[in-house]
Amino acid sequence: MERAARKAGGRLRRDFGEVEHLQVSRKGPSDFVTKADRAAERTLYDELLNARPDWGFLMEEGGKIDGDPGKPRWIIDPLDGTSNFLHGIPHFAISIAVQEPKLDGSGWGEITAALVYQPINDESFWAEKSRGAWLHDARLRVSGRRQLSEALVATGIPFQGHGDFGEWTRIFGAIGPQVAGIRRFGAASLDLAWVAAGRFEGFWESDLQPWDTAAGGLLVREAGGFVSDFRGRSQHICDKQILAGNDPLHSRLHKLLAGAIRA
Ligand code: IPD
Ligand code: CA
Ligand code: CA
Ligand code: CA
Q: Are 173 and 102 contained in the same domain?
């Protein structure tokens, strides 16, 4: 996984800043895809297929490719933070997760391994289920801050065609006055990795996809944090909402979120 991410990351580093060669197209009003997204995904696909020829794939650009029955699949966002990438902002990542099939064959189950790789500053956040979360070889722990008034939290802001501005504004109004600060950096997988690394005390966003949250969610859990939907219920990667945080701030945040979406 790391070898594949480093190879694809090298391509992204080379393409970064070459906007005129990136063949930008739109999937929605503010939803861009570039040659760099596709090339990174192709590299990841080739490398991972070579390593595990019988596993399946769920990829942002290429969709679903079945593997052999009973085998895991890779969930891939080849470039999380395309808008940052396009604007020359060096904050984007490659996100890869491994999802196991359910034992009874009734669909997809747990995420068991995760990697979020930030090519520009060469940070590799990874986790294995029950074996912890790591930044390179340093064990990760969520932040120990216990007061909302000391908490720095991250979010994603809706954009044209994605998300509900009214709901986001209500949530912002509920959380903003309580916390030390709110950030919007533009790559959900890195927001989650940074919660795992204790850089943020929490993160919330709606309208996300499995490839945005699968790897980062495992990182947070394995770093001792909590991941849920906005009401505090367990979050499945197909849920579009995610709230991640340390204990006890996760529960304080989910009460504020739940109140704001009820209002
Ligand atoms: C996006 C980023 C962004 C989030 C969007 C995602 P993409 O992913 O994670 O932070 O706010 O909802 O779609 O399209 O750059 O891979
Ligand atoms: Ca995208
Ligand atoms: Ca993404
Ligand atoms: Ca993407």
A: no
